[in-house]
Amino acid sequence: MTRQLTLPEFLRKMPKVELHYHLLGGVRMNTMLDLAKKYNEPLTEKDAKSYYRAFAHENEVMKGGIAALNFLYPLLRATEDYERVAYEILEDAKNTGVRYVEFFWNPNDTEIPYQEVTLALAKVFEQAEIDWNISAYLIPSINREKTPEEAVEMVTWMINFPHPRVLGIGIDYREDNAAIEKFWKAYRLAAQNNLRLTGHCSEFGLHWRNVETGLDLIGLERIDHGYTVVENAELMARCAKEAIPFTVVPSNTFFMKKWPNHSEWQINHPIRQMAKAGMIIIPATDDWHMHDTNGQKCYQSMIKDFGFDLDGVRQCILNGINAAWQPETTKAKWRQEWLTEFDTLRAQLIEEPQFDNAFHTPYQLNNH
User: Fold this and answer.
1) Among residues 43, 25, 26, which one has the least CA distance to residue 34?
2) Mean pLDDT across the stretch 241-249?
3) Are 322 and 221 in contact (CB under 8 A)?
4) Could you tell me the sign of the dihedral formed by the alpha carbons of 113, 198, 220, 142, in that order?
5) d(CA 330, CA 333)
6) Which phi and psi angles does 85 have, rounded to 5°?
7) Is the pLDDT of residue 328 over 90?
8) With contact defined as beta carbons under 8 Å apart, do 246 and 230 qualify?
9) Which end of the chain has fewer CB atoms surrounding its CB within 10 Å, N or C?
């Protein structure tokens, strides 16, 4: 077969899952401006740019993802606003090879009833599946900056209005003063009603015990972030042995600020340490437009910044399929079709990435 794909083209085309994506983190800047105009909310283009890394400058403060969510949730005041956002996000996703998405969103942060937003998003998801062959589902997420009682209220909404596009619950926002155990009642209620469980733990350099608590007290099936697990060798070995999936984000702002020189990532970054320890990691984008990333850029970082070869990339894709909250029959089909497609596209590469220094030595990930 004639080789014709560059590496960026290959990474864009290869089929992939996205298990850690905040719905409103994917809002296009023009959409934010349009919605502000629609509701007569003051927002200049300069202010809008402050939420998006692509427009960040050294002499200006980037407000970042959480600030963007705090601005956007009150701004989306009609179900049609959610429909527009969902349609545009899925269009962006399918253009970078994403075939399956599980979206976090925060029902307690919107004034629109949970049932109405769920139905509006599901309508778009169903159309996208027909038009683009991309599957999308929802993970209502606890805003841990709110009260545990509000978290229980969110789970109660989910129980009272079950929907096949809603898979389980998560937890996000600032973890500093809101460790996951505060929300045990909401998680227990969700588990009792057969909802799947994941949660943001040990982000922003916070203690590894939040991962341990998430696993042992809350019963999480997946961990989102979880980077300080590398500070506890016993816990890291346990997570590898038990094949606990971790969704990891190459564009995570904490480590970008800690090590602005990406060459340091090749030595120090937890993502590399987690992979070398044989843990199950799934690269994720978190907030596409806020973080100036996408499905292609995410995997480019795995190669450039963390030294993954294409066998490692393939393993990450397999990890994502295995960790998706879908029936085994569906995932078996994806494993067969998507990995075959990956191999076919790989055969068309003009040249595979070369590793010419010690930090780029490819390593073999455990095949769980």
Assistant:
1) 43
2) 96
3) no
4) negative
5) 5
6) -60, -45
7) yes
8) no
9) N
